[in-house]
Amino acid sequence: TTSSTASAISRITVIGGGQMGSGIAQVAATYKHSVTLVDVSQEALDRGKGYITKSLKRVAKKKFEGEQAQTAFVDEVLGRISLSTKPDAAVSKADLVVEAVVENIKVKQDLFARLAAHAPATAVLASNTSSLPITKIAEPLGADVKQRFIGLHFFNPVPQMKLVEVVRTEAADKQTVDSAVEFVRAIGKAPALCQDTPGFIVNRLLLPYMMEAIRLLERGVASPRDIDTAMKLGAGYPMGPFELCDYVGLDTIKFIVDGWYREGEGLQGNPLFRPSAKLDELVANGHLGVKTGKGFYEY
Ligand code: 3HC
Fold it and tell me: Which residues bear the site annotation Important for catalytic activity (predicted)?
């Protein structure tokens, strides 16, 4: 159905079955949307479905008494998710396409050029990028596509974190912004509207905080454990900065701050984002956090 303002989004195609893409697919399907999850191989899709199943079971345990009701819930939600390795066909009937692939500008630009050619002319196209300018991802697209292009930035773990940043470019039209906001509410999340600037709101504040925590450690002010305890018990954060760094991934953090320091609009050379020897060393040694079993802590 369509209306003169926001058009209701019911069919969603998510490109990328990693942690973020799987989480987005899961949440959309939980809230009764019809979802197609796309990745390059069946193995990647199976892995994504594995993440979703595990997380849904966790949600089901809290929501329903008894194994039968829990299994029924998991199956019902999974039943609304189709898997595909064919992006062109997968977007052909989509109301909304959300991209959550690798943080590489060229990869995203090429992907969207292709998706725009196969998606309906009314579809909203969204990127879940956390560090690349939405405007730059949309740059090669025609004006008719740019007006339907937006950032929808989810947070990890997607099923649990209530926020989605809705990132508007100069070119995005009101209907696109309204549809995106309506979609975010319809999947049980809270939207925060933001202009297309590096880090949007959350990461623009979170990355300096994480980097300053690492610099406290480098100066020998306190141990990771004491800094984490201090911020959890003294400032009410659910995780301390080092736990959060390890959780997000040290490679991801390095990639974001290095990119901003080098070429972030208005951030080039900003000392908040200057390289940290400690972070560089951990990443160079493959200690990327929880996912590799070691970061600032061992897992
Ligand atoms: N799927 C479903 N539910 C999940 C989940 C998952 N993958 N992970 C956690 N949960 C739920 C649990 O079931 C539990 O629910 P309940 O409170 O209703 O019982 C709740 O989350 C809390 O989980 P736990 O009790 O296991 O553990 P914690 O209390 O330590 O919470 C946490 C875990 C939710 C991750 C919490 O520590 C937290 O909020 N941490 C901060 C996370 C954060 O800041 N994320 C943003 C990172 S930055 C980012 O994503 C941007 C990127 O661009 C860099």
Answer: 153
Please give the distance, rounded to the nearest whole angstrom, from the Cα atom of residue 78 to the centre of ligand 1. 21
231 plus 267 within the same structural domain: yes
Identify whether residues 37 and 169 lie together within a single domain.
Answer: yes
Residue 6 within any structural domain of the chain:
no
The verdict on residue 62 lying in a domain is yes
Residue having the nearest C-alpha atom to atom 35 of ligand 1? 157
- Convert the pLDDT of each residue in 226-269 to its tens digit: 999 999 999 999 999 999 999 999 999 999 999 999 999 999 99
DSSP H or E run through 99: strand 96-99
Q: What is the pLDDT of residues 190-204, one digit of tens each?
A: 999 999 999 999 999
Ligand 1 centroid vs 50 CA: distance in angstroms? 18
What are the angstrom distances between the C-alpha of 142 and each of 33, 124, 149?
28, 14, 11
As for how many domains the chain has, the answer is 2
163 shares its domain with 15: yes
Complex ipTM above 0.85? yes
With respect to residue 126, please indicate whether it lies within any of the assigned structural domains.
Answer: yes
Q: At a CB cut-off of 8 Å and minimum separation 6, what does 231 contact?
A: 213, 237, 240, 241
